[in-house]
Amino acid sequence: MTSLEQPARPGRQAHTDIRPDGWIDRFAPASVRPYLKLARLDRPIGTWLLLFPCWWSQALATQGWPDPWMMALFGIGAVVMRGAGCTVNDILDRDIDGMVERTRSRPIPSGQVSVKQALAFLVFQLLVGLLVLVQFNGFTILLGAASLALVFTYPTMKRITWWPQAFLGLTFNWGALVGWSAVTGGLDLPALVLYAAGIVWTLGYDTIYAHQDKEDDARIGVKSTALRLGEASKIWIYGFYTLTYGGLLAAGLLAGLGFWFQMLMTAALIQLAWQVGTWRPDDPADCLVKFKSNRWFGWLVLGAIVAGHVL
Questions:
Q1: How do residues 202-253 score in pLDDT, each as one tens digit?
Q2: Nearest Cα to 191, choosing from 84, 81, 305?
Q3: Count of H helices and E strands in the chain?
């Protein structure tokens, strides 16, 4: 029996966030379904988590309402670059994914897409991302291109360090720098503080996410903060989220935001506290729910930043 044929462990219901009856299977042509799933278009939470730092930073740098066209460009860029990152990850992790309960049905380990086909799809996504990037100023183009170094190296970190979530934070929050530079043409302290806050935010939510796979990861030798922190994860995540809130607050104050920003950030803090306070680390389904709830945290922070400028 190969790793791709291993059944779910006895007595445990298979856990996956891949829905066989989702919109891709119901509406997309059969020939493109595996590619849409490879890009995770049926699971948009990763796109939101990549997009929000871009929008936060753009809004932070803008006096008044953020430019909707720029927001749309960031939205398109987040979709294709998140898809590209997932494609790179799945190519490099194809053998590991076949041994993990949650990921063995992904397009590459399940044989729906070959490595050559995945590489061709990756090139297509990167070309679309380039078309989006060249709509911005020269400094932003260079800054955006530099993120590729992180996109291509992050998937290897789970083999090297117990802290791959930190490298995901560096990658997923690069938009905090790009959003600011797209508006201003450069980088300033508020963007750097926002970037740091985003990194510890990712450390929190992706540690929650990693607890879904901790048994399989321990069995096959993959490293994660879920395994490194173990039963102390909840305490650590409280710390990560406290630093997240403090960093976001500092970034807003450095950018000149005042009363309404601070007031509305209280709702974002409550959302983070709810995540950790009600989180059940040994329940994979609850881990996924809490992880996905960070979409609402992203909207709360964006609303607080915009309100700080326009009210």
A1: 999 999 999 998 998 898 888 999 999 999 999 999 999 999 999 999 999 9
A2: 305
A3: 17, 0
Tell me the C-alpha distance between 171 and 1, whole Å.
Answer: 36
Mean pLDDT, the chain, as a whole number?
91
Q: Distance from first CA to last CA of the chain, Å, rounded?
A: 63
Q: Is 172 exposed, middle or buried (0-12, 13-18, 19+ CB in 10 A)?
A: buried
* Residue closest to 175 by CA, chosen among 154, 151, 152, 209: 151
Check residue 67 and report its DSSP letter: P
Mean pLDDT of 122-143: 97
- Do 193 and 254 touch, CB atoms closer than 8 A? yes
d(C-alpha 99, C-alpha 1), whole Å: 12
Instruction: Please count the CA atoms within 13 angstroms of the CA of 159 that sit on its side-chain side.
Output: 9
| DSSP assignment letter at 244 | H
